[in-house]
Amino acid sequence: MDPLFAMTVAVFLGALTGGAGVHKLAAPDQFRQVLSAYGLLPPSLTPIAAWIIPFVDLTVALMLFMMLLVPSVGGAGAVLAAALFAFYGLAIAINLLRGRRDFDCGCSWGGAGNAGQGQIHWGLVIRNAVLVALALALVFGEASRLATWLDRVNAVAAGLAFGVIWIAFDILLANHRSIRLGRAS
Question: Where are the domains of the chain?
């Protein structure tokens, strides 16, 4: 695997997990409500998990960003990122299998905290599976050459650009329902 591709993916996934951690820390009450809506934790553990999860997101992001300097740390970050995305996808899938879909997943930039903006759906499970695959590609892909300083600069620029595109697409998807409803009325 070309190191430019690997570092770009690492920066992209790091931006996603880091942004998610900051997003959760910025609105802790909303995140606790979202976490509670999943119904997977006992109510007594929800506040603790709501406090820990954002820091897990931020730690994973830092480890992924470290791939630019210390590839072995990035590999560990990629394993943790894959586990994190798989965990999030599994939480969504469990609720869908239970027939529960009428709550915000808390995973979209445009929908988190906006009650009624979105529902969980199988597309979110697929999205997380794609993120797991990208993270695992970092673990199992062997570098085809040594990375240069220019690779690192380009990876940061490309990874952040993909992150911005992802967020913009995420906001559009999260607001699709309200936009569609607005046109209908």
Answer: 3-184
